[in-house]
Amino acid sequence: MVSSHNELIVSLDIGTSKVRVIIGEINNGTINIIGVGQAHSEGIKKGAIVDIDQTVHAIREAVDHAERMVGVTIHEVFVGITGNHIELHETQGVVAVSSEDREIREEDIQRVIQAAKVVAIPPDREIIEVVPKEYIVDGQGSIKDPRGMIGVRLEMEGTIVSGSKTVVHNIVRCVERTNLRVAGIFLQPLAASSIALTKDDKNMGVVLVDIGAGSTTVGVFEQGQLVATSVIGIGGDHITNDIALGLRTHTDAAEKIKIKNGCALIDEASEEVKFKVTRIGSEVEKQFTQVDLANIIEPRAAEIFQLVDDTVYKMGFSEEIAGGVVLTGGTVSMPGMLELAKEELDCPVRIAIPDYIGVRDPAYTTGVGLIQYALVRMERKPVRTSTGSFKTAPKPAVNKPQKDSGNILDKVKNWFSEFI
């Protein structure tokens, strides 16, 4: 039963094979996952929308499933974004503290973040968010939260996350065509890291690898910050295609075989695990073993990890990163993936799984991470519309159980353009 007094935050993870909607109930700052909906997707390729109608249909279906599970109406969602169009740039902003008593307040933080956005970017790109690294008050640095401090000059050093305007606006367009509002767009590696990584992981240095169906997202964290990200155009679907070719069967059948009997390491596969496959062009079923299947899967999975290693090297991290690699994403659920990753990457590797009932699967890391990330950051996050303008919500945007929030826009204040 959903309490009418608790607020809801809803995430939308638009993936290559699945669209996932997760409803989080916020109770005194604690998240409870109360609803999950998902739908098959074919409208996304490598993080970009290639079929708007199909994507809109998948979003509607996933939202409908989540709404029926909990008995609420969803009005707005937080959306994840990734892809090789994403770029990270260092930035800084400087403002004078505005209050007469020189106490730093929320509006000063907003102003310094907006000042950090005043940079020249190409017209085909859009600022997604500014991620603060540290604040500096009258020359004193390494401040994480300056609110309540006394000062005259407030500075902020951080990272601008920018992306392709076309990709961003197409995502917003798809969501708005389902009669939902985009409450915020967050970079997926940052969102996933709020669930997958500890503070020590980020400070020590770690590589977060999210292996999805159509692509693999690599994020490198050092000194508490995301310092580099890249997307490799290969993922679990490529393993499925290899199985379909190797067993001469249909892709749908290959996917089911992969999920039920797949093993990424030949040495861990069993000859005792047997299954039958109806082959294309024949009504006769042929029997295979898990070892046969592993002989198909292991080379492709090994290639993914080799590409991850090459990508981290090309991003400028040639020496071993102290915290090793953290894996997440639906594909890493397959038996043998962890052991194979340790062999191929030759470093410490672990799998991150959300610690919430109902979503204890690495496929849900990004979706749950979006809720956690939104809860922490949304107070200062401008809300985007498809016209490219922004509006700042005075508190985290939420979905109220069984209430019509059609007038929520009336509560939104402080309109401003992206380039102040």
Can you describe what's shown?
With 420 residues, this protein is an alpha+beta fold. It folds into three domains: 7-84 and 166-188 and 364-416, ATPase, nucleotide binding domain (Nucleotidyltransferase, domain 5, 2-Layer Sandwich); 87-161, Dna Ligase, domain 1; 198-351, Nucleotidyltransferase, domain 5, CATH 3.30.420. The chain is built from ten helices and 21 strands. The protein has helices at residues 52-70, 106-116, 165-176, 188-196, 199-204, 236-247, 251-261, 290-314, 337-345, 365-377; strands at residues 7-14, 18-27, 30-40, 44-45, 48-49, 76-81, 87-96, 125-137, 140-143, 153-164, 181-187, 206-211, 216-222, 225-232, 274-278, 285-289, 325-328, 349-351, 382-384, 390-392, 413-416. The strands form six sheets. It has a five-stranded mixed beta sheet with strand order 3-2-1-6-11, sandwiched between helices. Helix 1 crosses helix 3 (165-176). The longest helix has 25 residues, at 290-314. The protein is globular and about 85 Å long. The model is unreliable at 380-398 and 402-420 (pLDDT under 50).
